[in-house]
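Structure ticket #2291
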Amino acid sequence: MDNVKMKAPWWFWVIGVLYLLWNLVGCSMYLTEQFMGDAAYGEMFGAEMLAVRDFVPAWATAGYAIGVWGGLVGIILFLLRKRLCLPFFYASFIGAVIGHLPSLLDTRFSELLGFGDYILMAIIFTECLLIIWIARKMRARGVLT
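Resolution: structure written out below.
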């Protein structure tokens, strides 16, 4: 009986597709930020952010990568109704926290951030925790196997 999947509610698919789109945006932002030249970076984020770009620690960039790519793999597994999505969601949340630590702890970065930047961080952390909660509920109901 453990191999029998329960029917997923309609909102499971809506949430899954919305999270997939959210994660695709995150991955595209990661790739854009990592591969754009200094001129384009300065144009997009401003001269002040360009000036501190080289001070972003490698561990924060790794956290950012784990956050977005872990979330993408997780949501694909979620849509495939695999319980293996949960470790990827946990890794994504931890990666998001690690990726944002310089913005929260290093004044070179925090002085450049505005209220909207902190709101975006709160949204990112909240959506990570929300998809973990949803996935755990779906696993408990037998939707994820």
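Closing remark: DSSP finds seven helices and no strands in the chain.
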